[in-house]
Amino acid sequence: MNEPIFLAPVFQERIWGGRKLQDLFGYDIPNELTGECWAVSAHPNGQSIVKNGAYQGKTLGQLWSSHQELFHSDSPVFPLLTKILDASDNLSVQVHPDDEYAGKNENGELGKTECWYIVDAEPGAEIIYGHEAQSKEQLVQMMNDAKWDDLLTKIKVKRGDFFYVPSGTIHALGKGIVVLETQQSSDTTYRVYDYDRKDKDGNGRELHLQKAIDVSTVPQAYEPVSYETFNQKGITITQLVSNEFFTVQKWNIDGTADFTANPKYTICSVIDGSGQLIAGDKVYSLSKGEHFILPVDFGPYQMSGTLELIISRE
């Protein structure tokens, strides 16, 4: 049986970052403006490193290209990217392209559809999720007139909320929010508005207005979200979203749960609690902030303890 693949994350400095990735997860962050933990990533801008087993020291990208027996995927690149974001200040208002637009305009990069599980939120914290414009002409006019309060739709959030953010959705995390983000493996973002902030050199940050207008969904379309929940011994599984880009679930383990081998590889992120992964005669410790991949046909196995995990698959 293959081993689980535990991964060391990559941290990214951001103007809106802070210290919560250390405070909440115990990560050894590089500085006081650490905004992103790229936890499971094979993207060239930040690759996770294998921490254990026969592939220790390899990047996830190397594993994907040279050991497809672990994944059995038709995708030419590792298709998903799991992040944890610390929005200690407001993120820029932004929008992402779909696969077709990104492929033509961003050197073959994937588009970026994503989703957010709210891990932590200060009282009153809110996100921007969509807009009120009814036509592209109205969108452009409201942007040109800087009518941001009228244009942008704001929603208050709390721990445990979930949002699906397809490409074309104007969005932003607000101050005081920590999310686990599952997304396509893309680093393409079109910045719409940035509160007139300056970068560390005193310059206004670049906006990408024409590309943002090109790709924004107008009028805003909201896909209904309906959660399916499955209960079995030791575990409650909540399916948060399942579509052509990814399937994302929340697992709540209380006690011991038994699993059979899955024909798909599985990305696992422990967002709270502690416990163990038991496979045959091997026992792996699981703690908050750990990220790992279960290869194709890994199992049977057990998870025990009190654990909250976010699970994703192609």
From TrEMBL:
The reactions it catalyses are: D-mannose 6-phosphate = D-fructose 6-phosphate
| Keywords assigned | Isomerase, Metal-binding, Zinc
Query: What's the record's note on cofactor binding?
Result: Binds 1 zinc ion per subunit.
Q: Cite the InterPro entries for this sequence.
A: Carb_Metab_Reg_Kinase/Isom, Man6P_Isoase-1, Man6P_isomerase_Firm_short, MPI_cupin_dom, PMI_typeI_cat, RmlC-like_jellyroll, RmlC_Cupin_sf
Query: What does the entry list as the binding residues for Zn(2+)?
Result: 96, 114, 171
The keyword Iron-sulfur appears for this protein: no
Q: Which cofactor does it need?
A: Zn(2+)
Outline the extent of the Mannose-6-phosphate isomerase cupin domain: 236-312
Top-tier EC class: isomerase
Question: EC number(s) of the enzyme?
Answer: 5.3.1.8
- Enumerate the CDD domains for this protein: cupin_PMI_type_I_N_bac (cd07010)
Protein name per the record: Mannose-6-phosphate isomerase
**Highest lineage ranks of the organism?**
Bacteria, Bacillati, Bacillota, Bacilli, Bacillales
